[in-house]
Amino acid sequence: MSVDNFLDIYETSLNKKGEELCGDKVKFLKGNKRSIVVLSDGLGSGVKANILATLTTEILITMLNADLPLEEVLKTVIATLPICQTRKIAYSTFTILQVDRATNHFKLINFDNPPPLYVHNGKVMPLDMEIQEILG
Fold first, then answer.
1. What is the pTM of this model?
2. In this structure, is residue 13 part of a structural domain?
3. What span, in angstroms and rounded, lies between the C-alpha atoms of 105 and 103?
4. Helices (H), the chain
5. In the 8-state DSSP scheme, what is residue 20?
6. Is 83 domain-assigned?
7. How many CB atoms lie within 10 A of CB 26?
8. What's the total number of domains in the chain?
9. Tens digit of pLDDT for each residue in 90-126?
């Protein structure tokens, strides 16, 4: 069953004071069957954060668009990103939104970003969430 839908995607970034580049990156693909939106935050600021966020979004959106398994996609991102020696965390966080264009059902994958908000008809709606440990 096909449903009427319109997916409006908008992004804007605000650079940290004194920085020429933003450490956040958003990329999206609208396909016939699904749309994919990826947001990444390269930790730190400026050029380094921008490079890490750009690398993360490119890897994620390219591999997800190729229908590779999520575990393989995450392994690739983790193997590619450096780990902060002080905080022992990856240098980039990300959120992935995949929307089925036929049903409007969506999947949201969040790694170390703040929890997502789902707003419907002007009201914040609860999301049914499932926490999974992948590559643990």
1. 0.86
2. no
3. 5
4. 46-65, 70-80
5. S
6. yes
7. 17
8. 1
9. 689 999 999 998 898 899 999 888 988 888 899 999 8
